[in-house]
Amino acid sequence: MSRVPVAILGATGMVGQRLVQLLADHPWFELIELAASARSAGKPYGEAAPWRLPGDPPASFIDQEVLACTPAAVSAPLVLSALDASVAHEIEGTFRAAGRLVVTNASAYRDDPAVPLVIPEVNPDHLALLDLQGPGGIVANPNCCAIPLAMVLAPLRTLGAIEAVAVSTWQAVSGAGYPGESAWDMVGSVHPHAGSEEAKLAVEPLKILGGPQAQARFPISARCVRVPTADGHLLGVHVRITGSPSAALVAQTLRDWRGACPPLPSLPTAPLRLTERRDRPNTRLDVDAGAGMQLTVGRIEACPVLGVKLFVLGHNTIRGAAGAALANAELLKATGRLQA
Ligand code: NAP
Question: Which residues does residue 314 pair with via DSSP β-bridges, in sequence order?
Answer without folding.
Answer: 233
